[in-house]
Design goal:
heterotrimer; A alpha/beta (264); B alpha/beta (368); C alpha+beta (85); A: 264 residues; alpha/beta; two-stranded antiparallel sheet; 19% strand; C: 85 residues; alpha+beta; 3 helices
């Protein structure tokens, strides 16, 4: 069958943002990092803040985030991205600053930096990609690995008696007064992608108003680390990750809430 | 100097730590990130009090790890930044310093050295010489290391260290000790605003349309690229040798050369006086830059002196650099106390006399 | 129905199939050809694309460009416009 893909009479409604470089992502097929990168850069493009945004990449799969995001960026030591972002923001308070970190980076080795950065109410966005595994080093157990989940370092399944429970660090973050906006989103469906994008937008808007730390957890997949196809991985995520890490806002600014109740 | 001008110059009696902190503000340090630890907490305290009044940023971090990574971020964003700590805290900073050295970010780090290993003691020590001069963290890198020996130098070297750090895009370390940090001396503070800010086109300040994005990173995954970066660093360290600084005391007619830095050098100066009263011609070479080490200056005395005595408040660390410089052409001895104990000038003199005795015995026995 | 179409940057597509699952029209499939990376890439297999952009939103490689009939054209042709969020 001959497919008509002519754009005659059509208008452009979606394209790769110009704030991404032309470098193809090195991520495995189906990896949620790509979606998160793309959305973040879409928001930077749409808000016209490319010239005023500085990002901090972590150690983990997204260590090369700066290859893809066409903005000034710094690459931090493992776990220290929020401290690095603090340093940047403190000396450049009028710029938009974000850190982009995985679960091992943010919720294991960088726990102290994460909590204290938020507790200071650093006026930055922290993007937390939670796929419950160490992807870059080859699929080891992460602080957010689910009970019973098999990884290369929990070959018999995560045993909470040995290694403790999957860390709901976002819930911990939400109770800190320095946190202004805390939400948990995902990238598995078009609807969730739209919600995540909205969360990025809000966070940058709040940052412009010096509101404090915005913290966005993105429950994501790791098809390679989980040993599944991307489609299977998303399904597994929905069935296993979402019940433990439910999507939605954990802390909404009061003004937002009031607005919501007025509408209701 | 003109007598009237002399009077106008500001002289104060200050603690070493506070003189250093005040000098940092005068040197235009824009942000300080640190964590309390004895015997250097006065730096953080002084800056916490003064920086906000004078337009600077000061932040007490949750750990030295966080502090050094804030330094990474802020320096990468183009600011003139500093941190300070003491030995155990400096150990915690080694990870960050390795990254900072690799990413070639200028910053000032101050180590008010205390006795170790471990939690050790809060008393002065020079036990961190190896850590300071050999890199300290992982990988092939060096910090620029300056060793003050007075409260005056605690202040002056802030300017020198920042100048060198920015000139070479390299972290610079002031290696002091607990005594220099705590003691009070007269100090003439450097003039505020005399240190210009260099252009930092590499800084991540937001990417204008017309330039490529700036990336601050220490990750060079291709070995070919990583080797190239290493070669660039080594080339920089070679160029750094132009910056070697040292002081000579009573070396013109010296038959024995002491090599000592910081507080030990001050003790040795007194030892020189005691020795010369007894007719022993002692001289002193005081390295001011511990890295780059004044190896040529040290070596140049090999043809003039009978032996070298390295005096340190440690088990023998700088002696290795002295031995490498002398390269076996003269005996090199060591005297040092550890764990926060400070040698007296008399003890050092006793060591000199002891060596002289054994040297003359061995000279006799070899028929020299 | 609104007419849309999608263009793939086939050289960066990794054939993850997430766009295929996301497409409400089942317009997409994997090609029988492979790209230089060695992946079977996604392509349009039916002529019923509405340009809803769902595929592009979930694409982890930002490989999809979407085109759609403009709303003004819809009005002119008397077609019913569907609000796309």
């Amino acid at each position: 069958m001959q497919i008509n893909d002519s754009i005659e009479g059509l208008e452009l409604v979606y394209q790769r943002p110009a704030t991404l470089t032309d470098t193809p992502f090195h991520y495995c097929p189906g990896c949620g990092h790509g979606v998160a990168h793309k959305l973040l850069m879409e928001v930077v493009e749409e808000m016209g803040i490319q010239e005023n945004t500085i990002g901090v990449a972590p150690v983990g799969c997204s260590v090369f985030a700066y290859h893809y995001m066409n903005i000034d960026m710094q690459e931090a030591a493992h776990g220290r991205a929020s401290a690095v972002a603090t340093g940047i923001k403190r000396v450049l308070p009028d710029k938009f600053v974000f850190s982009y970190q995985g679960d091992g980076d943010l919720a294991a080795i960088g726990t102290a930096e994460t909590i204290h950065t938020v507790n200071r109410g650093e006026n930055i966005l922290i993007v937390f990609i939670n796929n419950g595994i160490y992807g870059m080093t080859g699929g080891q157990m992460a602080p957010t690995t689910l009970i019973g989940q098999i990884t290369s370092t929990s070959p018999y399944g995560r045993d909470e008696k040995l290694i403790g429970y999957p860390l709901k660090i976002t819930d911990m973050i939400a109770i800190l007064p320095g946190a202004f906006y805390v939400t948990r989103q995902s990238v598995n469906t078009a609807g969730n992608v739209r919600k995540l994008k909205k969360a990025f937008q809000k966070s940058f808007e709040f940052q412009k108003l010096n509101k404090g730390t915005c913290f966005i957890e993105v429950v994501s997949n790791c098809p390679s680390g989980w040993g599944m196809t991307p489609v299977e991985a998303n399904k597994w995520m929905e069935e296993n990750m979402f019940p433990y890490y439910p999507l939605g806002d954990l802390k909404v600014p009061r003004t937002e809430k009031e607005k919501g109740s007025n509408n209701a | 100097m003109d007598q009237t001008l002399e009077l106008i110059r500001e002289a104060r009696l200050m603690k070493g730590n506070e003189a250093l902190a005040e000098a940092a503000i005068r040197a235009g340090v824009q942000a300080y990130f640190g964590y309390p630890i004895t015997p250097q907490s006065e730096i953080l305290e002084y800056l916490s009090r003064e920086m906000p009044k004078r337009g600077g940023i000061v932040l007490q971090a949750e750990s030295e790890l966080a502090a050094i990574n804030m330094i990474y971020g802020a320096s990468g964003a183009g600011a003139r930044v500093m941190t300070s700590s003491s030995s155990p805290g400096i150990s915690l900073m080694q990870e960050g310093l390795s990254y900072i050295a690799s990413a070639q970010l200028p910053c000032l780090v101050v180590n008010v050295n205390r006795g170790g290993p471990g939690l050790g003691t809060i008393q002065p020590s020079q036990g961190d010489y190896f850590q300071a001069t050999k890199g300290g963290g992982h990988g092939d890198y060096h910090l620029i290391v300056l060793a003050p020996a007075s409260v005056q130098e605690m202040a002056d070297f802030v300017f020198d260290a920042i100048t060198l750090a920015e000139k070479y895009r390299n972290p610079a370390l002031i290696l002091a000790d607990g005594a220099l940090g705590q003691m009070m001396e007269k100090v003439e503070l450097p003039e505020e605003g005399s240190l210009e800010y260099p252009e930092k086109s590499w800084a991540t300040v937001g990417k204008p349309k017309e330039r490529e994005r700036n990336i601050i990173t220490s990750l060079f995954i291709q070995p070919e690229k990583m080797e190239k970066i290493n070669l660039e660093l080594q080339e920089k360290y070679r160029r750094l040798k132009e910056e070697v600084r040292y002081e000579l005391v009573s070396t013109d007619d010296a038959e024995i050369l002491m090599v000592a830095y910081g507080l030990s050098a001050r003790i040795c100066q007194k030892t020189i006086d005691l020795a010369r009263e007894k007719g022993i011609k002692l001289g002193l070479l005081r390295p001011i830059t511990l890295y780059p080490f004044p190896e040529e200056a040290v070596a140049s005395f090999a043809s003039k002196v009978d032996f070298y005595l390295v005096v340190e408040m440690n088990a023998g660390q700088m002696i290795e650099d002295v031995k490498l410089s002398v390269n076996g052409s003269r005996p090199v001895f060591h005297y040092g106390r550890m764990g926060g104990m400070i040698s007296s000038p008399e003890e050092v003199l006793s060591k000199v006399e002891e060596i002289l005795e054994t040297q003359s015995v061995s000279n006799t026995s070899t028929g020299r | 129905m609104i007419r849309g179409t999608v263009h793939f940057k086939i050289e960066i597509c990794k054939g993850c199939e997430l766009c295929i699952v996301a497409c409400p029209q089942e317009s997409l499939g994997l090609s029988n050809k492979i790209n230089l990376q060695g992946y079977r890439f996604a392509e349009l297999i039916k002529d019923n694309c509405t340009g809803c952009i769902n595929c592009a939103l979930v694409c982890p490689d930002a490989a999809i460009t979407v085109y759609r009939e403009p709303k003004s054209a819809l009005r002119k042709s008397g077609k019913e416009a569907v609000e796309v969020k």
